[in-house]
Amino acid sequence: MCGIAGYFGGGTRSQIEQMTAALAHRGPDDESIFESQSEPLFLGHRRLSIIDHQHGAQPMWDKDGNVGVIFNGEIYNHIELRNDLEKLGHRFLSSHSDTEVLIHGYKQWGEKLPQKLNGMFAFAIYDKLKRQLYLARDRFGEKPLFYAYRKNHFAFASELSALALAPGVGNSLNRMAIQKLFAYGYIPGPTALYEGTKKLPAGHSLLFDMQSGEMFLNQYWKFELNPDHSLENRHSAELADELEFLIHQAVSRRMVADMPIGIPLSGGIDSSSILAAATAGAPSGSINTFTIGFHQKSFDESAYARRVAEWLGSNHHEKILDLPEAQELIDTVLPRMDEPLGDSSLLPSFLLSRYLKENISVALSGDGADELFAGYDPFKALNMASTYEKIVPKFLHSGVRRLIDLIPYHDTNMSLEFKLKRALRGMSYPASIRLPVWMSPLEPEEIGELMQEQVHPEDLYSEAIQIWEETQNLDPVEQALTFFTRLYLTDNILVKSDRSAMMNGLESRAVFLDNDLVDFCQQLPSCFKFYNGESKILLKEVASRSLPSDIVQRKKKGFGIPLAQWLRMVPTHPPLKPILNMQTELIQEAFDEHRSGRKDHRLALWSWLCLQAIVNPTRM
Description:
Distance between the termini: 31 Å
Strand order of the largest sheet: 2-3-1-9-8-10
CATH superfamily of the largest domain: HUPs
Strand content: 15-25%
Shape: globular
Number of helices: 27
CATH topology of the largest domain: Rossmann fold
Oligomer: single chain
Radius of gyration: 24 Å
CATH class of the largest domain: Alpha Beta
């Protein structure tokens, strides 16, 4: 993994050095700067050595020095692409560099290059002869890439904090980004926290023409469900055979590295299925697995992970912690998140990444399985929401919510009371925005009060509404799958995984996001994913072939912390420094209500703490 940065149109070498230095945690092994002699162009690169660690300095150039690339990521099919390119007459200088494949691939296929790649990536290619910069980001946005553009000026970086250091960018806050933070619990792309900055959306490429000063965006791939209903007539065992092969293939592709590899193990079927594929045919004890557990029972999964490790014969490593150890990370982790993220599982994810890095450099993760196979609780509420709408008149919804709000809240991980209150909140809104409202820190009216301005749900949830409108031909499960995969996965789950790993110099590879596996899932009818209240149906059938039944059937437990309990004590003095013209009195009131036990404001207060940590970094 690496960090990349660059800008065109002015500035000095010291500014690209500052940008690159801000990415040092993403690439602690090497640093390089390129300054063009013919253009006002600077490129910077920080490197974490995983493949070809002796010959990976970047920018990497073709033999004529006309095409150079800076690259963050891994290309899992680089060997196949190298073979194809060699047959077409290309001659490589390195023996197995995936970075060099990007150079020759660009020279052969031009802007069609990303469509050939199976991997996670964010890269920038400088074409001297065409006087162009060509950037691309992987299909799901596993690797981040931010940019800022105004005519004749262009800048980009792996992280927003580095981009803010580019000439003419800065860190003035984007009001809509903050509104969307409280509407979703994360900031969905292309919106970014600072004015004038954007995320390059997942599955997109960007061309900046230095001669005209113009920029052009292109979407080369989009996650779209195209269920093949003829598959419903096939025996599920046949489809399970195919899925099992694809999981094994995806794991095999991600086991290639010049550095130690391991598997973080939760004891759930996602990570356990990855381990089953990795250990198939491997000598007992040759695969390393890692788990962190907590002394607090309702947040601990270590016993399940231990059972799976023993069952499959991995070399298991385990660390049991007290949850207050995670609490102590608030001051360390939140200011380094680059953008605020209202997902408190960031803290145990950081702890796990730190533990993994003590032993390995590459981890195989199960990110994406919940989205592809309908593993989240809201899927179970879809039918209930439909029934509720039919039998409860609209004018009674607010009264039902007030009645349910009288139930005292509990601190246990994802308590029934918490789920019920969240579900009823969503049912008060149109189906097009029900999913994000279920998960939102604040409702639209509350966001308007906080921001002291009128807000419109169609603006707050424009991304979710667009997905809803595009998927009207799909069933409700498939619509929800599309929402979770395009938005929640890209802008929450993968951001959390990337930041928690890279803050520790660890590379995380998402097995379930392999191109071939995803293509299979896009065609798989929803009845093989979620049916009659059961989720991950086909994945469980595969898992049952190698895992004990109690592991396959056990209830999903999120990787969480006792956030509601913590926020009654931490921070001692809530940070209330002004941000734009937001009403801090409302935040103080929310803290008071939460700490008295009258209401549960955990998601809103956590989002506020994350925002404060980045905008006004001080100890909490």
